[in-house]
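User: Can you model how C2E sits in this protein?
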Amino acid sequence: AKAAGKNQYLRFQPEMMTALVRRTDMEAGLRLAVDNDEITVNYQPIVSPVRGEVAQFEALARWDRNGERVPPSQFIPTAERSGLISAIGMHMLQESFTQLRAWLAGSPERSLAVNVSGVQLRERDFADDVLRLAESCGMNPAQLVLEVTESVFFDHDDHVIEQLGRLRHAGVSVALDDFGTGYSSLGRLQDLPVDAVKIDRSFVSMIRTGAEKLPILSSMINMAHSLGLTVTAEGVETAAQAAYLTDLQCDLLQGYLFSFPEPDTGLEIALLRSADA
Ligand code: C2E
Ligand code: CA
Ligand code: CA
Ligand code: CA
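Assistant: Here's the modeled complex, given as structure tokens:
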């Protein structure tokens, strides 16, 4: 008993307490952030190398907590664990629908991509809520892309498949985010109810000037194309990467080479610039 007691004491390290406090503190702050509209949207352009223009914008969540930016890699997991991701997700959709309305109205070829968590897809009325919101904002569902990661398909949840089916039936596209990083990507791709893949940055960063051929990249792109899927490459940072991917017929490119994610004010400048080109 003495040994166990000592063990217990040893196991409860001060840094565990700190981590716990930080976690509940983050959750409390995030709850207030949602109520106080501290969550804003940044937009990153996704370009078509063939058409030479911006084809899509991806909406990315930003949280400025008392003037200090908290990265999504920190607050999104907290938001998912606490269920706050549902409110954040609807806020992201509403804000981006509204802010991109004029740009989207310019051409039916343009679309808006928004990240969706598995937690949202497991909600009872997610598809209906999204479609109702789109309608109330005057947004054509055919101009909406929902980005999901492979993990939403892990537990073969019929409800998730049904929600995605309803959305796709209404014209919404589903893109598989971080493609290539999952467990079963290539082989299982044909069974997934998706319209597009986004090749993860880790593959794009393998492209270096003068480097040897990268068969993995061409396999990923060719496989996706043979299934009729649109292919976007993420994290394109150099002109050499853009050229290499364009050569492999990659449909869309996204990354710091073209633009960082920007708030709507920066967006206007980016669009003016792209109109000049
Ligand atoms: P993601 O969906 O894979 O988004 C791409 C991330 O890569 C973004 O990070 C973006 O800023 C970054 N990025 C874009 N181009 C480049 C590049 O050329 N080089 C490098 N190094 N990075 C680039 P961010 O904005 O920090 O978002 C991180 C992750 O947080 C996202 O990864 C996404 O999984 C999640 N996230 C962001 N907003 C939302 C949201 O509204 N809802 C949900 N569920 N998740 C979100
Ligand atoms: Ca994404
Ligand atoms: Ca991604
Ligand atoms: Ca990622």
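A couple of observations from the model: The mean pLDDT is 90. Residues 58, 115, 147, 177 surround calcium ion (ligand 2) (CB under 6 Å).
User: Helpful, thanks.
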